[in-house]
Amino acid sequence: MLTALLWLFAGVGLLTYGADRLVAGSSAIALRTGIAPLLIGLTIVAFATSSPELLVSIVAAYQGKSGIAIGNVVGSNIANIGLVLGAAALIYPVKAEKKMLQREMPYMVGAVALLYVLMYNDMITRIEGIALIVMLFAFLVYQIRRAQAQMDRFNDQVQEVMVHKTVPVWLAVFRTVLGTACLYFGSEAFLAGAVDIGTLLGVSDAVIGLTVISIGTSLPELATTIMAALRKETGMALGNIIGSNIFNVFAVLGITAVIIPLDGGGINYIDLSVMMVLTLVIWGLFQYNRQLGRISGLLLLIAYAAYMVWLFQ
User: Fold this and answer.
1) What is the pLDDT of residue 95?
2) Pairing state between β 262-263 and 123-124
3) pLDDT tens digits, residue range 94-110?
């Protein structure tokens, strides 16, 4: 068990560091080619920050563990709402802008509902993967057009990119290569540790993906969101969660399924329904009150803990 935990933690560390280096390197290279900082922030950075989930799912699929690949996405979306958003709301009420409720959140609900429908035959085919990627590009185009009309709302994305403006080309390339390598080896180490733990506990690949894998790949979102809540910048925290859940479905599952078609791997409609219900619950709560208070945050955490307990029964 100790060796498995060491592999697991080493994997988390490499995945987190790799994603950070990939953001730094790819942003600097993109700036050198003349791409607008706003475009980089909404596309390249978004892809890079979702790279741990993507690499873990691709490697798991190559190893024939579709349950982990799909469970990673479903479990991460559940964790983002129940664990991450719940913890943030417990620290400080999470507020949602009216425009976010009218635009991004319905898109997240639609992404989750689409995944719910696609799993009707217990698999995600290559054609369905292509369809998910098309949906992703439609979302990115929409975001870019909206951002161009409301530049002041996207200063955070621009500032994150501009930090890397003065990085030399050779260093940018080195960071990109280093980040990619860390992501690959991190995903291998993380999967090895998670699978060993699952074997010792006697649970299926699906449960491993829904629990250990999804929590591990959601740690960056958890840390970022908690820090935003502590700074009382909960609007940013909510935006990160919505964006992450959309990318998990469209980018992670879409790209993985195009490379390797996925079977259900033990992910059932109870798991999908938990993801769907939690998504609809927070949408309804925000529509009703425009914010998520501490009581709601506590209830989300309790619901997440109850789901985790149920998985290991």
Assistant:
1) 85
2) antiparallel
3) 888 777 787 888 999 99
Name 149's Cβ contacts closer than 8 Å, sequence gap at least 6. none
Residue 206 · residue 265 · CB < 8 Å: yes
Number of structural domains in the chain: 1
290: left (phi over 0), alpha (psi -120 to 50) or beta: left
pTM of the model: 0.88
Host domain of residue 61: 2-311
Q: What is the CATH number of the domain that holds 273?
A: 1.20.1420.30
